[in-house]
Sequence to fold (256 residues):
Amino acid sequence: TSRWSLSGTTALVTGGTRGIGQATVEELAEMGATVHTCSRNEEELNQRLKEWESKGFKVSGSVCDVSSREQRVQLMEKASSVFDGKLNILINNVGINVWKPTVDYTAEEYSTLMATNLESSYHLCQLAHPLLKASGNGSIVFISSIAGVVHMFSGSIYGATKGAMNQLTKNLACEWAKDNIRVNCVAPGFTKTSNVKPLLEDKDLVDRVVSRTPLKRFGEAQEVSSLVTFLCLPAASYITGQIVCVDGGMTVNVFP
Ligand code: NDP
Fold:
């Protein structure tokens, strides 16, 4: 098989109906992978599945709230049955945020953010491990954030979940290398998705982001999914344990 193709591989992408997850599903499918994805909204999921079918992509999907342990188990059982027990690629993409000063967070907000962003990724890795190992050639990509690398106004709980994903990338890369599973992490900066739409209306904030960003604009979801896809290719076979920022240079620009 080609070093630049995913033909014959299987992939599970969480949160694939919008934004970075959607772009990732489409790019993996374009490269030849068979993909399973999930989201909470059945109507939107079915809509996407129809669009993908009409484009000739091999994508299936199930409704799953990844913050629920029980639903995560069901999701992996489904993926296992669709892919005959063999998974090449796991993309831990789902992430949510609540922006607040640290002193204002409630215990419930803490639990929800931890469960959705961090615990879901951790548990899905545990559940996927036998399938990734069985495939003989596994690749995990976490979608963290530049907020897990540097401080941002995005809030401390979100930053903590993303920082933990960055560390988990290194732990699992070393622990599971013997099983032929590579583990990497993509840390996006400001990317135009439904997630950041409200931000785009705040002109002052947009100006601050742009002035700090050497490339002078927000990113597009496809500019993140292209790296995610690359990390899963045979061409990336010696890359593991890495965290790469896709942020137009924002995090290396300390004094704009
Ligand atoms: P979007 O809000 O555009 O899309 C999120 C996707 O995840 C949707 O398909 C959504 O569907 C699904 N989803 C959300 N919560 C759950 C859940 N509990 N269970 C299952 N599916 C869920 O997000 P983005 O594409 O912007 O973000 C993707 C990742 O990138 C996140 O981890 C985010 O933290 C990270 N990121 C994004 C940045 C940005 O600027 N956009 C910057 C840095 C990091 P539904 O709501 O129907 O369930």
Summary: The two ends are 45 Å apart (CA to CA). The mean pLDDT is 97. The CA atoms of residues 146 and 251 lie 7 Å apart. DSSP finds eight helices and nine strands in the chain.
